[in-house]
Amino acid sequence: MKTKKLITVAVAFILACAGLSACGNTGGTSNGASTQSQKAETPKPADLTGKWKETNPASAQQHMEATIEGNTITINWVTSDSTSLYWKGTYEPPTNAGDYSWTSKGDTETMKTALLASRDSTKKFTYTKGQLTYKQTALGVTTTIKMSKQQ
């Protein structure tokens, strides 16, 4: 009788150990596949090139539009019948994902001949959550211009 109990306990112990070994299996491809699916893609820097339009104009008759192309940003005052240069300067694309800002160096030679152009030599631009912003001063009033990218 003791032998029967001993054999039963031994068999139960062996089965329990075998079951635990199977649960802890680290070999095979299923574990590698789940590791790959858990890896998220690395976020990419925003592509700011293209056309931008002011989203908070002070007047329905005029607004600002920007074009970022190559290493240049150009901003114009736009009305129903005219377009006038406000800013032309350098553009430095973001190298990391997320919020971004850069200080544009103005093309003062080009801007000095434009009546409505900024007289600043530099201008800070900020990109946050799909919106491009900068400060503009006209007639002694400073306004934060907000722009969204056009399709």
UniProtKB/TrEMBL annotation:
Signal peptide: 1-22
Domain of life of the organism encoding this protein: Bacteria
Keywords: Signal
Region ranges (Disordered): 27-52
Official protein name in the record: Lipoprotein
